[in-house]
Amino acid sequence: MPRSARPPRRGGFTLVETMFALSILAVGLLAMLTMQMHALKQGRYGRHTTEAMQVARDQMEYFMRLPWAAADVQPVGWTVPTSITVSVQNDAGVQAQQVFNVRWRISTAGFDSNVRLIDVDVTWTESDANAGFVRRFVLTSSKNNET
Known about the structure:
The chain has 147 residues and is α+β, with helices and mostly antiparallel strands. Helix content is 35%, strand content 30%. A 4-stranded antiparallel sheet has the order 1-2-3-4, with helices on one face.
């Protein structure tokens, strides 16, 4: 075959190669999007857990500062939950309100009448795809009679 009769060679990718490359890219991008959404959800849960821990610590500190004979540190069963609203930053960086329900129980330690056990229970509801899923943080400590 004479040199001038050969069909010219074309460089580049075929349509099949291009579609295969785009499908691999799409799978990778979807995986990254899924990881990002999971990271945002876990970040929100972490912020709410941190706020719940702070609410529980504030309540526990209140009990620890009171004198032994104060009415608020006398043995009592679980109290009715009290709602506390805290401003937290949402995923878009905007301040949002999160409601925490706080209840506590104070009991006399069975091993020593000069020790009271204090339990603070903080619950909240996540506002994401798992709406209605209640999260909980519990803090327990003891208070000694300092007489």
